[in-house]
Every structure is written in C-alpha cells, then in structure tokens.
C-alpha cells in the first residue's frame, strides 16, 4: 500500500513539475488554461499527513484554489456555509431577524442588521467593480484564478460528499458558491475593523423629519476625552482579535539565520478560525501556514526562505467627516458651498416567518452616514449636521495578493516589496525573518491618509477631542481642502504611501504584542509617525512589557534555536504576578485578623489566600496553584482601583518597560477586591489553591482538557480568555486565545525547521478525527513537527493521498 501511494504521489509530482517547466510557447497555453480551464475541469492532489494537515499539489493557480476549496470544505463546510449566508444577506431568512448575527464577519448585533448591510454591499456592485480593476488595485490573474478555483473546489466537495457535521447536515442553506462569494468574503475580512464595526448604525441611520429637521435638534454635547478614549477601546481595542510575534536577527541565533515566533489570538469557534495547509505549484510556489477560513491564500506562514506573522495593530482604520447639510433637505450636504445629494442604498431582506423588510441606507462621497461612535458617543443626524464614515478597506481586495507575495518571498526585503506593491494589509502589523538572518517589523497597513497637519487644520470641535485622545479623526466634510489627498506610491487615493509606514529593519529582535510601533525594540524606538498609526511615549500594556523583557533577554543571551521559541510560547509567565503577587501576599498577611470587607459590607476571612499567593509559582500552567486566585483578584483590583492609583511608581517614558510598578496595596479598593475574590471562589465551590487546569478547560469528545495560558491583561504571552460563570462553577469553555502557532527557523538544509500548532484543531465537525487532536497537544504543551519537504511528507506514517476532481 505504501509503495502504491508513493508511486501515485511521485507520478503526480513529476507531472506537475513538467507542467511548471514548459517552454515559453507552451507557457502561453498554460496561461490561457489558467483563465479558461479545460473541459476536463480542475483537479489537485492532496497529501494528508498527521493531524489532517493537507499538502496541496497543483499545476496552476486555479487548480491550487480548487484543492484548497475542497480541503477547507472537508474540514469546515458548516462554518463556511454560514459565512456565505451572511455575505448574501440571508441570515434572517433562515435563522430569524432578531437572532444574534454571530460576529464572524461584522459586529452586527442582529441578523437583520447584518443582512441589510451585506445585501446593500452586494446590490451596490462593489465587489464586481473591484474585480474589474487592473492589478494592483484589483486582484491579479493568479488570485482571480485561485478564487475561481476555490469556489469550484468547494462546490465539487458539496456535490460529491455528504455533510456529516450536525451543525448543518441536511440544511437547505448549504449551497454552492461563486467567485463573487469568495471575493466578497475577502472584502468583508478587510473591512471588519472599519465599516464592519458600524453595521448597526449604518443600517439604522435615517434623516430627521418634521420639527427635528427644521430646528436642527437634537444637538450633541461634545464628549470628554475619557469618553472618547473608552469608545476607541470598545471599537479598536477589541479583545476579539490580538496577537504576539517576534523576529530575531541572525546574530542572536545559533546558526546565524533568522527565527520567527508567531502567536495570533483569535476566536476558537466560527468564521475567524485559521486552517492549516501547504500549497505547492512545482517551480512556482511552495508555502505552508494558516489561512483565514474562506480565503484561498496563506495568511501567515513560511517557505524555504522566509517566515512571517501578523499582529493586530494600533492604527485606526477609519475616520469620520462631519457634514454640513442643506437647510431645506437633510439628505443633501454642502462641499465648498455646492450641494451634493446623498445616495440611497435600499436593501430588502427576506425574514423567516415574517414579511420582508426594506430599509434605506444613506451614502456620501466619504462613505455611509452613521449616527454614533459608540453608545456613549452619539453622532446625531440633525437638520444641520450628519456624520459619514470613511473606510478605505471597504474597497480593498488586495489582501490576497499581498499574502501571495509573502508566500513567494525569498527574503524580508521581498515581504516589504509585496507590501509596497499591493498595499493590501487592512488592520495588522507584519513581522518577518529570513534564512539570511534579517528581521523585520512594519506597520504597513491601509489607513485613511490623516496626517497630524490635516487633523490640526480640518478637525471639527469634536475631532479636536477625539484625534489626540484616540487617533479617531473627525474632519470638516464641508471643505474641499480637507480631502485626504494622495501620497506618492499609494495605489489608491486617500491612503498612506509606503514611505509613511513605521518600519524597523534588522534589529536584534522585533516584537509586537498589539502595542504601538514605538516599542518594537526597546533599544531602537520608532518615532515620527502620524497619530493615526498609534502613540509614542505612552504607557505600555503588561503583555507588551512582559514580551519585551522576555525577548530582549533571549536576544542578549544569543545562540537561539527553534526550541527556545517553543519554550517562550509555553513559559506562561505572568508579568502582573511578578510585579504584584509578593506585595499582595504580604499586605494580605498584614490584614487585622486575616479578614477583609467585601463590596457588600460583609467581612471575609482571607487568611488562606495569603499563603496561596505567596506560594504561587507566577505562571499560568495548568497545574499552577494560585494562578486562578490571582487571575480573579487582578481583574477585580483593576475594576476597584483607578488606573492612576494602581501603582506607587508612575509610568515614565524614559523607562517604559519597567514602569509603572509597585502595586498600591494601601488603596481602599485593594482589600475589597481581595475579599470579593475569595468570596467569589468559595461561592463557586472552588478551592483557593485549585490548579488552573481544573477550571480552565475545553470539553472534546466528552473529555475535559485543561488549557494552559492566561489573560492578556495579566501580561501572559500565551493568551487564553475564558468567560467567567460564577453560577456554573467557574470559567466556561475557552472561546478565544492562542490559535495558529508557528516557531520557524533554518539550518544548513533546504528545509525550514518549523514547529506548528493549531490550538483548536483543523475541523469544527465533532465527527471528524481532527476535531480535537491538536487541542490535546495544546493541553499538553506539545507541538507538531512541520512536514515541508517532499521527503518529510512522503515519510509520514499517516500519509493519505487523495486526487480531487471537478467531476466525480
């Protein structure tokens, strides 16, 4: 059997290799075939190795997309189908108008709001117009072929296979898709942090009528800086996406080559999951990594020469324009005194067990009209004023081409070249390393071209509060000279060009944990960028502080290997604990009678907690005793004590990694937080010294798996964010945290040295053998040795070869 498999694979490889080495005349024929597949249809060879990881072998980009679409459907058909229903604006039809929309592709709270928005996008022809644009504004021929192939592969799987996942088996909403659906998903992912955040207000905004329109009421009081900062945290400090990544320069490593550790933090369920694969077109492309579901290219990964990862950035991906309205018509606004009518985008949505709903959205030259920045910061549409949202990523289909450029890169310089050419990264930083020993960090992302000069000259009264406080620009939309303009090298107007991007090349380490570009390397701080990219000289989060301490020490020690990256991932050190646990334990022991008064006025015996905290090992390992107690205490302490009173030693920009420090145990909130925490755990029936893994877990195949890691607010690198359910006896199952992990380096061979781990495994289908296998590895802090080279793929004891066709 093994020899038969080997002959099949070698035969397919030889065929594809020959195809990739065709002479020029034949290559022209191959290009035509890329655009117009033969009547025999598309095909690919998929070699599955351990943990269901597919190695997709194809002769062109269309076939590669076909194999990718097929393999993704095999693992995640229900999740994918649910997303395509979202993109078509049909959730209300199948699941009801008021049901929660899920949040995979937007922040819409209800299916109806989601449907109205995505139906509007589809009927506007936005995606078709972008597909028709020439590259780099529109997708390249290769990416178009991959999207078309992906749709064909997904459809072929649906036609030839039976859905076994109980989440959608037999469901009428599991239907074939088109290239347009695949492109629409890419666009939704790009704009998820811009228009996607504002779906509810985009679809609800309506012009004032009657007396309100005539008088200009109601009016909004300008919110304070704290309200604005809070709104920004809610919008663009969303814990629903995060990440760590670090690249090390060659002189810090054992072999003189670069190293990369990537640790994105994403939801464990739903459409924002990563999915692993290797994509190979012999002689053209060979890359391994994780793709966001429904996308045809590798999103984060590595090849024989370079490795890269992403972290969610601090850049604000959208801005607002305050409109001055025509006194006679609140749907007409003025620009340099000339009237412009808003455009209506009317969408009709079918509703389960109800009449269809038709609503009108209002769009301007800047974007859609919105009526709030957040529940705390209204932006009312009156007879005099309205606000429009500008999101340049709502017209960005360039992410796939940027990623494909990474996949083909041979150096960090090539990674930068792909960013410069395609400019398709919407809301993340890029961190990379290569086998020549180079390291790279860059915040090369698509942002509105808001310079500090423009904001100073054109901000409205509200904008003068929001921009310095949070980077959210609100510009005077009535002035033509307040247009965003264009930078040299920008592929479209209104965004920054490549020269503006905060970038750090060849530092001993380049690290980001969702902080600003400023502290990518503590010895080489980045400055001089515009406020919309992030701040300079401001307090760092504990995760950034802890990460810099760790990776700087690693770089100073030198001689690093992939094994050191693996140890860093699962060190599970708690910087908050290192800073505070000792002082907390001593202050606890000093409480009179070992008691503290809780927020309900009741006295609580906390004496047992003092010893537990003193003995705690300051980690979030599954066997760590005291970790859960400190975790729950720290959360309460941050709520009970204002941030400016939490530490005795304040923040200093001259020492940002080590300040603030020395927790203020004299604050009245300290003893209250301690009492409430002890009462909480006892009330839930949880011992104060219970091991973390007994209460931080997932259940797979009926087995309770302890999960290592901890909250980002504690500073833990290996982020895990379960939800607390006191009535249920502690934490619920882990819904979010570390996802597609990769530790990558190079030795003297042609094969990268890589260890990977997909924490939630390849498939959401509980009937799949790959529903929980890698989750068990994560529970035990174990890794998967990547099989990148042919010899490694062929030697897999779990090798399974499948040739997939468009026709059965």
Automatic annotation (TrEMBL):
SUPFAM superfamilies: N-terminal nucleophile aminohydrolases (Ntn hydrolases) (SSF56235)
Pfam family, any one: Penicil_amidase
UniProt keywords, alphabetically: Hydrolase, Signal, Zymogen
Cited PROSITE patterns: TAT
Signal peptide: 1-26
InterPro entries the record matches: Ntn_hydrolases_N (IPR029055), Penicillin_amidase_A-knob (IPR043147), Penicillin_amidase_dom1 (IPR023343), Penicillin_amidase_N_B-knob (IPR043146), S45 (IPR002692), TAT_signal (IPR006311)
Superkingdom of this protein's organism: Bacteria
Family: Belongs to the peptidase S45 family.
UniProt name for this protein: Penicillin acylase family protein
């Amino acid at each position: 059997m093994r020899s038969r498999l080997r002959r099949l694979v070698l035969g397919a490889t030889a065929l594809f290799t020959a195809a990739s080495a065709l002479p020029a005349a034949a290559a022209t024929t191959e290009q035509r075939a890329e655009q117009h597949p033969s009547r025999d249809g598309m095909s690919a060879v998929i070699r599955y190795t351990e943990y269901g990881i597919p190695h997709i072998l194809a002769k062109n980009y269309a076939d590669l997309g076909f194999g990718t679409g097929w393999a993704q459907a095999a693992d995640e058909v229900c999740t994918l189908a649910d997303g395509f229903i979202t993109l078509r604006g049909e959730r209300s039809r199948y699941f009801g108008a008021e049901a929660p929309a899920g949040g995979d592709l937007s922040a819409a709270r209800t299916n109806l709001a989601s449907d109205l928005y995505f139906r509007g996008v589809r009927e506007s022809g936005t995606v078709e117009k972008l597909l028709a644009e020439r590259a780099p504004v529109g997708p390249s021929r290769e990416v178009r072929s991959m999207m078309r192939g992906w749709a064909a592969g997904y459809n072929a799987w649906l036609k030839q296979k039976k859905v076994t996942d109980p989440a959608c088996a037999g469901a009428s909403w599991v239907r074939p898709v088109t290239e347009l659906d695949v492109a629409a998903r890419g666009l939704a992912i790009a704009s998820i942090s811009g228009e996607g955040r504002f779906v509810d207000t985009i679809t609800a905004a309506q012009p004032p009528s009657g007396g309100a329109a005539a008088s200009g009421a109601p009016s909004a009081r300008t919110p304070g800086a704290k309200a604005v900062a809070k709104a920004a945290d809610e919008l663009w400090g969303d814990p629903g996406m995060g990440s760590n990544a670090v690249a090390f320069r060659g002189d810090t490593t054992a072999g003189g080559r670069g190293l990369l550790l990537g640790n994105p933090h994403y939801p464990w369920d739903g459409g924002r999951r990563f999915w692993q694969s290797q994509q190979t077109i012999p002689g053209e492309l060979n890359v391994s990594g994780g793709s966001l579901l429904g996308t045809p290219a590798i999103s984060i990964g590595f090849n024989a020469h370079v490795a890269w990862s992403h972290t969610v950035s601090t850049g604000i991906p959208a801005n607002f324009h305050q409109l001055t309205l025509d006194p006679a018509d609140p749907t007409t606004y003025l620009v340099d005194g000339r009237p412009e009518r808003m455009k209506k985008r009317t969408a009709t949505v079918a509703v389960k067990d109800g009449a269809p709903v038709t609503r009108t959205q209002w769009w301007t030259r800047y974007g859609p009209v919105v009526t709030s920045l957040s529940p705390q910061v209204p932006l009312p549409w009156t007879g005099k004023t309205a606000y429009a949202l500008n999101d340049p990523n709502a017209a960005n289909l360039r992410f796939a081409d940027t990623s494909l450029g990474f996949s083909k890169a041979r150096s960090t310089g090539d990674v930068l070249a792909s960013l410069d050419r395609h400019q398709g990264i919407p809301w993340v930083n890029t961190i990379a390393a290569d086998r020549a020993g180079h390291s790279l960090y860059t915040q090369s992302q698509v942002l509105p071209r808001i310079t500090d000069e423009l904001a100073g000259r054109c901000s409205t009264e509200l904008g003068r509060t929001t921009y310095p406080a949070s980077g959210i620009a609100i510009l005077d939309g009535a002035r033509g000279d307040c247009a965003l303009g264009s930078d040299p090298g920008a592929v479209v107007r209104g965004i920054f060009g490549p020269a503006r991007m905060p970038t750090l090349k060849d530092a001993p380490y380049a690290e980001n944990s969702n902080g600003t570009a400023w502290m990518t390397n503590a010895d080489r701080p980045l400055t001089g960028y515009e406020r919309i990219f992030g701040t300079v000289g401001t307090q760092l989060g504990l995760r950034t502080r802890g990460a810099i301490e760790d990776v700087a020490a690693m770089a100073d020690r030198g001689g690093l290997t992939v094994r050191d990256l693996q140890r860093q991932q699962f060190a599970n050190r708690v910087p908050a604990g290192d800073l505070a646990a000792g002082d907390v334990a001593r202050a606890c022991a000093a409480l009179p009678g070992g008691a503290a008064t809780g927020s309900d006025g009741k006295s609580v015996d906390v004496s047992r907690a003092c010893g537990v905290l003193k003995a705690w090992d300051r980690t979030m390992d599954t066997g760590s005793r005291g970790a859960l107690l400190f975790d729950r205490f720290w959360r309460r302490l941050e709520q009970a004590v204002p941030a400016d009173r939490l530490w005795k030693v304040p923040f200093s920009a001259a020492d940002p990694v080590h300040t603030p420090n020395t927790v203020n145990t004299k604050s009245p909130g300290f003893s209250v937080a301690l009492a409430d925490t002890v009462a909480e755990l006892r009330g839930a029936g949880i011992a104060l010294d219970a091991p973390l893994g007994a209460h931080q877990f997932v259940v797979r195949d009926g087995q309770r798996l302890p999960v290592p890691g901890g909250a980002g607010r504690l500073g833990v690198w290996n982020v895990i964010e379960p939800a607390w359910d006191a009535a249920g006896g502690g934490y619920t199952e882990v819904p979010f945290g570390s996802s597609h992990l990769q530790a990558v380096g190079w030795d003297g061979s042609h094969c990268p040295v890589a260890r990977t781990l997909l924490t939630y495994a390849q498939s959401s289908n509980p009937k799949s053998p790959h529903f929980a296998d890698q989750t068990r590895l994560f529970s035990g802090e174990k890794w998967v040795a990547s099989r990148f080279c042919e010899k490694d793929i062929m030697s897999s004891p779990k090798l399974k070869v499948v040739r997939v066709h468009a026709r059965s």
